[in-house]
Amino acid sequence: MSQPQDTTATSSGEMSSESPTESTAAANAPSAGASTGRSLLPSNTLLRHLLVLLLCAVVAVVLLESTDQFTNSQLAQLSYYAIAAGGLTVLTGLNGQISLGHGALMAVGAYTTALFLEAEEPLPLPVVLLVAVLLTTLVGALVGVAAARLHGPYLAGATLALAVGLPGLALYFREWLGGEQGLRVRAPRAPEAFDGFIGFVSGNPASNTKWLAYLGAICLLITFFLLANLARSRVGRTWRAVRDQEVAAELAGIDLGAWRVLAFVVSAACAGLGGAVLALVVRLAAPSGFTLVLSLALLTAIVIGGLGSLFGALLGSALLVFLPPFVTDLGADLGLNNTEAAQLAPFVYGVVLVVVMIFAPAGVVGSVRLRWRTWRARRAASAAGRA
Amino acid sequence: MQQFVNVTLTGLISGSVYAAFALALVLIWRSTRIVNFAQGSMAAATSFIALALIQSGWSYWLALVVALVSGFVLGAVVERVVIRPVEGGPELNAVIVTLGLFIAFQALIAIVYGSSFESFPAPFGLRGFSIGDTTIALTPNSLYVLGAVVVTMVGLIALFRFTRVGLAMRASAFGQEVARLLGVRVGRMLTLGWALAAVVGSLSGLLIAGGGLVWPAYMDALIVFGFVAAVLGGLDSPVGAVVGGLSIGLALAYVSAYIDPALVNLAALVILMVVLLVRPGGLFASSTARRA
Description:
A: mainly alpha, 21 helices, globular, B: mainly alpha, ABC transporter involved in vitamin B12 uptake, BtuC, two-stranded antiparallel ribbon, 11 helices, 4 strands
């Protein structure tokens, strides 16, 4: 990521649009809002993120309790996309490395979960999820070590090969991993306490779908909380330095390779958790669920939301969940049959990738933020002119 | 022994197709420093055009010509409309755009033709020649594949070596500004380069389809193999792409025959990783080592 990378940097969201001097300033004053004193949020980063986490948790509960069963399952879907996309946006947006292999990494998490839940007396769910994350992290570290030396098209090609190649393992170890049919996942039942909680909050029946949706939401909130802290910390700043100014970063004593591997590892851990939640929600881990289209869909999510922005990743994931039913209905109205209409969603992903990259490479969040800043700067300038 | 010979022959034949595909990638890389990940989908699109024509009663050869011409047009249009705005920009943007095209074309084929598997006719017989009383894995069709690839390569070499257009294309790939100062229409040369690459890509798509099944994603594996072959040859060198393609073809044929067909794609990944880690410039890198 030598010199041409700079242009992405200036156009991809807040975390990215800071020039080196600005980001040191940003370390002292975590957000522009806090420094001008107009924000209601505390200026301490951890405290602010905790507050946001709490707010989001309340919003999640309200959202899950005020919607029906079907929407609940859609939200569960949203959570696993968002977990994986959050990891990918940290990798691509903050560290400048692209990965088309996240679909395959999700497969690692999903298969691990399926295998561990198959046991006669499965381990408690959090342990299974943790094991899935750890194993994916391990695979991610292996890939990351190779990826750290690559950039741009080379990295894209290598991870593309990963996405196309890894599902072959499921076919090779047919007896163990179920071949083309894959593994059915026995999702564990909701604990007693959950029934009590739902009864207390809303009085709705506590179905298994609801339990899985809550599980996804909890995983999502934890992941995003950790990622947000990481992005705001020394680690995040170093990643940005590695992305924007290779030479300067190296001169400052930063080991480029090690930090790139770390970014890949963190990102892979998220993909593993995303895959584990996917396995629980879909109740199946099969090669057909982890095609190249999944990897490219994740890429679409983070590109449209804005590279490097967690909120953007969430927005993009919402698009991945709510767009396909919409366009499929549209296709059916236009007289396409089911299989043809099902292809409209990937078609839209592709068109969106191209259009966003040409017209608004900063994505939704980045573009809005850019407008907002320009507007504020202009207002400040005109105020200064009057004074 | 007989199996070994047959596997080697199969590997060489498919390797020659990978070589042609890798060559198409190299053509684009040399002129615009972009790896066209949409190459496979574009080739699949033109093969489906050919298939539709053949199914409606056209001859194979007429359909082939129409497919190659539509590949030419498609390549030119894609470069002019979609790639031009991101050319010379951040490398990640161009990568993402070609990936977008990749998935969009693939989905478009599935929308228009459906996602089912269709058999694609071969222009020549698919029965192996016999030597004595053993049949070897060399068929009239595979000779045609080999011949088509060789003719294409000779044609490209002739174009680049002996014509004014070829000289202009090499000049604009070598130094855009200098070429522009000397009166070369660089923009047009880039468009032409993409169009030619799309023709070569389409041809390899048609060759690999002949006598087999096609479905919208049938080129997914080929884009990986082509990329691995191109990287093996250094991404910059046409000769490297050919040698890389043949080696990949052989290696994958041996993996498929002696280990397990399910591991072919994984083997491609392993080869790619080894090459990138041990010799990132490829076997035939002409320029100085790339800064990783």
